[in-house]
Amino acid sequence: MGAVACAVALADKLETLVGIYGIGQIPTGDKDPFGLRRHALGVLRILIETPLDLSLPALLKATADNFPKGTLDAMVATDVESFMLDRLRGYLRERSFEVSHIEAVLAVLDGRMHEVVPRLQAVRSFATLEAAKDLAAANKRVQNIMRKNHEELGAAMANAVFDPALMADEAERNLHQSLMDITPFVQGYFNRGEYGQNLKALVTLKPFIDDFFDQVMVMAEDRKLRINRALLLKQLGNLMNQVADISKLAA
Q1: For residue range 13-24, what is the model confidence (pLDDT) as tens digits?
Q2: Residue 107: exposed, middle, or buried by beta-carbon count in 10 A (0-12, 13-18, 19+)?
Q3: What is the pTM of this model?
Q4: Do 92 and 23 share a domain, yes or no?
Q5: Number of other residues whose CB lies within 10 A of the CB of residue 58
């Protein structure tokens, strides 16, 4: 499909989706008189299979903004996006991608539909590695620690800045150094769309992560130490979750 044909098809399908959904004509059960499911899948296939570097949330917002003010429900763009993501899950399952892999990618995709299949292929390959399960479990642990610290420390955690001088344990210094060493490579792979290489590079972090959790008390009584260690884990989590939220691969 040529560029003009893609643009016309997207405009037509998006206008139908947002307009009809926005006046409350939402498909229920087997009833879909306006073919909104078909239109949603059509938009997704154009974005994914062409592929087109366009943000789905931005497209939906632009479409909704083109309607006269007050015509549509105020949340229509968000609601249609959720509706379309459900169609996307079905489309990807039909292409034999695993549910956990799909959810891992969608958690961080941020509407970039053209990246979904390459990222899923990378996750599928990563999941076959011997270290994958351990890294996924470590990532899940990191997220749980971050959540607990934010809940208990609130603004003190949110406003804190990592201070290398506060590292008191060799294992945390080693983890920090390993992150500094690998970050340029991992970031470069991600920026170039080399998602498989991005994920495979994380395997080199495993011994440092293992030593950290074996030897370092993250939830230390010393509040400054606790926050600083949590922020180190935040750096780790951010690096590990660029392509997909690999914690969702943990059993």
Answers
A1: 999 999 999 999
A2: middle
A3: 0.92
A4: yes
A5: 11
